[in-house]
Design brief:
By secondary structure, this protein is mainly alpha-helical. It starts with a helix and ends with a helix. The relative contact order is 0.15.
Length: about 350
């Protein structure tokens, strides 16, 4: 009887994964079809198969819409998996990719480069085009990895997760304080460029940059999946996991490194994308109704990709001039979803 129940549960999980996968495909198609410029469906099909004759439409598809959609897929998956890892390690439902200050470190790196370029070098980084964008990406990675190294050093010195969590939050506040001082001292043009970067966008990545980003995430995400067993053991509590033979300190360190690197790469290419990392794991738990990371990890990645595609679609819906900030859309779309999940869970608990 138990074996039959397990098979039914496994089948339902596979069906849910397949449904979300189909949703991702449909949202990808809609993202490529819709935009400020109307392109007929069959013309889009011809362009994607290499038979398009309109150069302007071809350029729109391959230089803008398709890169944005692919970026949203991998960025959403990376942030969602990172958030799941943080929530499991710290046993905190409000934990997310930015909980240890890694996103703030990224922002600080960009702030130092962008906000000091005009006042010290006399040339606004925002006016340097591709070179300026590359410099911002490098600065974001350096800032995030610097904070990650600091967190790793602190993790070796402290035992409790709560202490590490508090230190991470303090690092985030410190980074924000330094950014505030730099904003006050920087020229108005540089401040505007930094604020625009901070709004987050899937449209910054195109061409060779997109290929590098997708390849990096295609390597990092499977590596994150290798931590499924330690994450399942950590759910049982650190003492019980240690009794089962898990090296808790090393496992915690590996999860923090995995989560931090995922956040660093996504932030470098897309800017700070909020809310997805904190909200999507709750959505995945509500859909799959399990705490088993063998199911939850791919389910969370799929949900993250689908939600990111939906937010990207809303951000550049026809009728809008340009594109809305992605961070605003992620909050507007995600907050009601999570509120609904929490209320449904509460209603189910009361009913039981």
């Amino acid at each position: 009887m138990e074996r039959q129940s397990s098979r039914c549960s496994h089948a339902s999980h596979l069906m849910a994964l397949a449904a979300i996968g189909l949703t991702i495909v449909l949202l990808l198609i809609v993202n490529v079809l819709l935009g400020t410029v109307k392109i007929p469906f069959w013309e889009v099909c011809r362009i994607l198969t290499g038979g398009g004759s309109n150069e302007i439409w071809t350029n729109i598809i391959f230089s803008s819409r398709l890169p944005q959609a692919l970026t949203a897929i991998v960025a959403g998956a990376g942030l969602a998996v990172s958030g799941l890892q943080m929530q499991t390690v710290f046993r905190n439902p409000l934990a997310g990719p930015s909980v240890l200050g890694i996103s703030n470190g990224s922002a600080l790196g960009v702030a130092i480069v962008v906000l000091l370029s005009g006042s010290v070098g006399g040339v606004a980084l925002s006016s340097l085009g591709y070179f300026g964008e590359a410099a911002m990406s490098v600065a974001a990675v350096v800032g995030a990895l610097a904070v990650l190294l600091l967190i790793m050093w602190v993790a070796q010195k402290v035992k409790g997760n709560v202490t590490l969590l508090i230190i991470g939050v303090m690092i985030g506040y410190l980074a924000n304080a330094i950014i505030g001082v730099l904003k006050f001292l920087a020229p108005e043009e540089d401040v505007k460029a930094f604020v625009v970067w901070g709004l987050g966008s899937f449209s910054r990545v195109s061409g060779d940059e997109m290929m590098v980003f997708v390849i990096l995430m295609a390597i990092l995400l499977p590596l994150a999946f290798l931590l499924v067993k330690p994450l399942n053991l950590l759910l049982l509590g650190e003492r019980y996991a240690a009794n089962l033979g898990l090296n808790v300190k090393r496992s915690r360190m590996l999860v923090i490194i995995s989560s931090g690197v995922l956040v660093a790469i996504v932030t470098a290419y897309c800017g700070p994308i909020m809310f997805i990392g904190m909200a999507v794991p709750h959505l995945a738990r509500a859909i799959f109704r399990t705490s088993d990371h063998r199911i939850l990890m791919p389910g969370t990645a799929f949900c993250g990709s689908a939600l990111a595609l939906l937010c990207n679609l809303i951000a550049r819906m026809p009728g809008f001039e340009g594109a809305l900030p992605v961070n605003s859309v992620t909050a507007l779309v995600g907050a009601p979803i999570i509120a609904m999940v929490i209320f449904r869970r509460r209603h189910r608990e009361v009913a039981e």
